[in-house]
Structures are given as structure tokens and as C-alpha cells.
Design brief:
380 residues, alpha/beta, Rossmann fold, six-stranded mixed β-sheet, Peripla_BP_I, amino-acid transport, Branched-chain amino acid transport system substrate-binding protein
């Protein structure tokens, strides 16, 4: 009798163990951003947004196709460099990740998107705004922010009408993001009846702008637009101050960060800098964003820089598609992801159009007062 009982107990244990193993589904999600280099503060901000989402999903015990999912984050650094970005993308493709969140910069996102497409891996960028990203015909590419056409165009109109710019000059850093948003800004200015009286170029590693700014000072600009990131905009603002250039300074989401006043060494005057973040929440949705920022601060002892909430939503949108499809296999959940409609995230409602762009993408206009960002308005 005892032998029979032991056999039964052993069989039950085996069955339970087998059932437990059957429920364990490992889902690997890649994240790529510049966690080294001049904009590492933005890349780390993104990665922390991904880590927060992954930790919460694991705590919830998400079920996919009847199995309990265990999410793993494979984080890579692209240093904001296109070559390093494609190497990171290939590494994730070789690791057979189930999906990728990233990259941060358009210049790394666009070349990497071909690698993910060839591997059939869905990719959601939380921050790449260059129009070309979703114009390549890669059905694996998505983004949760408005593109440069909307972002740059809106800023151009704002500079010409609201800021009443009469002599507007444009500087860009020659990256896919900087040049793209500057081109769209120029179109927006002209569309609103304004005039761009000069255009200059720098690069995303530059720190000395004396030659460019001295040349521009002679044109007496009232608005200077910079297409690039905060690590370059900060020193540029410092040098504008030392040269006595009092023009309004306008830029896209790349400069629209919490660190800009520090990078400008406290030289920003109130209502001197205007920028737009490619996203935005208002009304009831704002409570969700505020709660996210408070939770982020409590968990990491850091303020959100800019994109972390968009990364957080990107992870959750991807996983929601897996749950709905009943599978984490890219080929099975990709069609469901493409049809995402009305997902309520902390950054607002997410729906994708047939190109992979967010529908009705919002922009949030900011200025800086007392050394901190101050929200002006949400624009659609």
C-alpha cells in the first residue's frame, strides 16, 4: 500500500512539475538607447522606463496563450552612433528577441529598422521622429510619438505667429533627427508666412559655436532654431549669452529636457527657450502621467528626463498585443500590434495608422522659467 502511495505521490509531483514548466514562457524584449556618450542621460532615462515596465509585468503574472510569461530585458547601448546601433540590432536579432523597444535617435533607429524587418522582429521607437522611419515599407516599425512633419511644422508656425519672428535663422547638427526636424521647421515657418534668413550647420559632438554665432549675430535674428540634442544646445545657449545674442531659442524634443538648464550653466532667461515634446497628455490623462513621474522618482531617485514614459508605454503596448494574440511569437502578434486601437497609456491614447505612426499624435509646448521646464499647451 505504501509503495502504491509513493508511486501516486511521485506521479502527482511529476504532473505538477510538468504543469509548472509548461506555464513558464520566457519573453525576451530588447531595448536600445545611448547609455554612453553625450546624451547618456537620455538613454538611461529610456532604459529605466523599460525596466519599470518589465518589473511590473513580471509582478502581475501576465498570461500569454495559457502560459505564465517571464519577461527579460536585453539592454544594449548604441551611443547614439548609427554603426553601433546596427551592431546592437544584429546582436538582438541573433538573440531571437520577441520584440525591440528603441532606438532613441532617428539616426540609429532608421538603419536598425532594416535589420529588425529582415528578422521579422517588431520594433517600437519611443522617440525617433524622422519621417523616413515609417516610410521604408517595413511593417515591423512603429512609433508612439508624433513625427517631424508634425513636430517641426508646428514649431515653425509657432515661431512665425506666436513668437512673431521676423528674422529667423536655423542651425542643425546634420543628424537624421536634427536635419529632419530643421527641414520641417523651415517649411512650417514659410507655410505661416514667415521667412528664414539664414541656415547653418554643426555636428552632434560640437562644443564651440563662436564662428556660427558671430556670423548669425550680424543678421540680428530674433529667433534661432536648433535641430539637435540638449548636449549641444546647452553650450550653444551659453555662448549666445556671452556674445550678447538675446534671440528666442527654439528646438524640438531633443532639447526639451530637464537637464537643459544645467547644460546651459544657468544662462537661460525666463521665456527665452521654447521647445516641443513629441507627445502630450491633458485632462484626466494627466493624472496617469503625473503618477508615473512620481513612481519613477520614488523608485530611481531621479526625475524623468523626457522619454521614459513613452518607453514604458511601448513595452506595455507590445505585451498587450502578445496577450491578445495568445502568442509572443513575432509573426503571430505583429498583425495584432499593427491594429492597436485606443490603448490607454500614461502618455495618452495609442492607436497606429497603416504606416506604424501614432494616430492624432500630440505635441506639448514648453518654455523654461526659474531654471525648470514650464508647460505651455498641448497641441494636436
Amino acid at each position: 500500500m505504501q509503495v502504491k502511495l509513493n508511486v501516486v505521490v511521485g506521479a502527482v509531483a511529476l504532473l505538477l512539475g510538468g504543469a509548472s514548466m509548461a506555464q513558464d514562457l520566457v519573453v525576451k524584449i530588447g531595448h536600445v538607447g545611448p547609455t554612453s556618450g553625450t546624451i547618456a542621460h537620455l538613454g538611461k532615462d529610456n532604459e529605466l522606463g523599460a525596466r519599470m515596465a518589465i518589473a511590473e509585468l513580471n509582478a502581475k503574472g501576465v498570461m500569454i496563450g495559457g502560459k505564465k510569461a517571464k519577461f527579460e530585458l536585453l539592454a544594449e547601448d548604441d551611443a547614439g552612433d548609427p554603426k553601433q546601433g546596427t551592431a546592437a540590432a544584429q546582436k538582438l536579432a541573433d538573440a531571437k528577441v520577441n520584440g525591440v523597444i528603441g532606438h532613441l535617435n532617428s539616426g540609429t533607429t532608421i538603419p536598425a529598422s532594416k535589420i529588425y524587418f529582415d528578422a521579422g522582429i517588431p520594433q517600437i521607437s519611443p522617440s525617433a521622429t524622422n519621417v523616413d522611419y515609417t516610410r521604408k515599407g517595413y511593417k515591423t516599425a512603429f512609433r508612439v510619438v508624433a513625427n517631424d512633419s508634425h513636430l517641426g511644422g508646428t514649431l515653425g508656425k509657432y515661431a512665425a505667429t506666436t513668437l512673431k519672428g521676423k528674422s529667423i535663422v536655423v542651425i542643425d547638427d546634420r543628424t537624421a533627427y536634427g536635419q529632419g526636424v530643421a527641414d520641417q521647421f523651415e517649411k512650417g515657418v514659410k507655410g505661416a508666412g514667415g521667412k528664414v534668413i539664414g541656415r547653418e550647420f554643426t555636428n552632434d559632438k560640437a562644443t564651440d559655436f563662436s564662428a556660427i554665432l558671430t556670423s548669425l549675430k550680424a543678421k540680428k535674428p530674433d529667433v534661432i532654431f536648433f535641430g539637435g540634442m540638449d548636449a549641444v544646445a546647452g553650450p550653444m545657449l551659453r555662448q549666445m549669452k556671452s556674445l550678447g545674442i538675446a534671440a528666442k531659442f527654439v528646438g524640438g524634443d531633443g532639447i526639451c529636457t530637464g537637464d537643459l538648464p544645467k547644460l546651459a550653466a544657468g544662462t537661460i532667461a525666463d521665456d527665452q527657450v521654447y521647445c516641443a515634446e513629441a507627445g502630450g497628455v491633458e485632462g484626466e490623462s494627466k493624472k496617469g502621467m503625473d503618477a508615473f513621474k512620481a513612481k519613477f522618482k520614488e523608485q530611481y531617485k531621479l526625475d524623468v528626463q523626457i522619454y521614459a514614459p513613452y518607453v514604458y508605454d511601448s513595452v506595455n503596448v507590445m505585451v498587450a498585443a502578445m496577450v491578445k494574440a495568445g502568442s509572443a511569437e513575432p509573426a503571430k502578434y505583429l498583425p495584432v500590434l499593427a491594429k492597436t486601437e485606443g490603448y490607454k497609456g500614461v502618455t495618452g491614447t495609442i492607436s497606429f495608422d497603416n504606416k506604424g505612426d501614432i494616430k492624432n499624435g500630440a505635441l506639448t509646448m514648453f518654455t523654461y522659467r526659474n531654471g525648470a521646464r514650464a508647460e505651455l499647451a498641448v497641441v494636436r
